[in-house]
Amino acid sequence: MMITTHQAKTHLSRYLAEVEKGKEFTIARGKNPVARLVPMKASQKKTRPKVGETLDAPFAIPDSAFAPLTKEELAGWGL
Question: Cα separation of 21 and 8, whole Å?
Answer without folding.
Answer: 17
